[in-house]
Amino acid sequence: MFRSATPSRTRRSRIGGFSMVELVVSMCVLVVLTAMAIPSLMHSMRAYQLNDAAGRLSDMLKFTRFEAVRRNTQVNFLIRASGSNWITGTDSNNSGAIDPTEKQTLIGGFATLLPSGTAPSSASILGTLGGVNSLTTLSGAAAITFDARGAVTPLVAYVLYLGNPTGPDFGYRAVILLPSGATQVWTAPAGGPWKRTG
Predict the structure, then answer these.
(1) Which end is more exposed in the chain, N or C (fewer Cβ atoms within 10 Å of the end residue's Cβ)?
(2) Are strands 85-91 and 75-82 parallel, antiparallel or unpaired?
(3) In Å, how far are 62, 75, 116, 146, 152 from 93, measured between CA atoms?
(4) CA–CA dist 133, 44 (Å, integer)
(5) 1 within domain boundaries
(6) In angstroms, what CA-CA distances link 121 with 25, 77, 170?
(7) Phi/psi zone of residue 181: left (φ > 0), alpha (ψ -120 to 50 degrees), beta?
(8) In terms of pTM, does the model score above 0.85?
(9) Whole-angstrom Cα distance, residue 26 to residue 36?
(10) Under DSSP, is residue 193 helix (H, G, I), strand (E, B) or coil?
């Protein structure tokens, strides 16, 4: 017996696929949901970039301190401008420059070093630290010296502010270097106050 293919083809065309109205409605819902999610995703990405820059800066300070203790000699941590970015690194041979073979990291892009007065007041940080009366802001080319014990020479507390000068809505990060050589990472929204995160 021979059967016609027409009835099964008609049944299949009614079952499979979407109508144009269903497709347009689905696309509209997708566009609305995406538009609602983008600001949250951007804020999360910018916060991640700030946290990453602060973490890399803190790690570089810790590495330089470790090198001073390991070598039992004075070692410098350097900050140098590189166009609109900053290169920070360990001057292992104390040449006054970060050589290509020495450990270094680039701080730039969205999260960059900020000058004093850009970030919220550090009064809440000083109130928490205890025993530290002032913080010396490093915002340009600078050097920090660690002695053979891993302490900062001279015994000064430093702060390096990170953020974006054109995007204060994403907040700020502060990397604190205590006279003992220990580091701390603090975070603050645009208006403050500072809270320790690491």
Answers:
(1) N
(2) antiparallel
(3) 17, 8, 30, 13, 17
(4) 34
(5) no
(6) 50, 25, 16
(7) left
(8) no
(9) 16
(10) coil
Residue 114's H or E segment, with its range, is strand 112-114
Give a yes or no: residue 103 inside a domain: yes
What's the full length of the chain, in residues? 198
Instruction: Tell me if 112 sits within 8 A of 86, measured CB to CB.
Output: yes
Nearest alpha carbon to residue 187 among 58, 6, 80, 82: 58
Tens digits of per-residue pLDDT, 50-96? 999 999 999 999 999 999 999 999 999 999 998 889 999 999 998 99
Tokens of 115: 């000058």
| β pairing state of 136-137 and 158-163 | parallel
Residue 12 pLDDT: 55
Domain with residue 78: its CATH number is: 3.55.40.10
| pLDDT tens per residue, range 113-135 | 988 788 888 888 888 887 788 89
Work out how many domains the chain is built from and give that number: 1
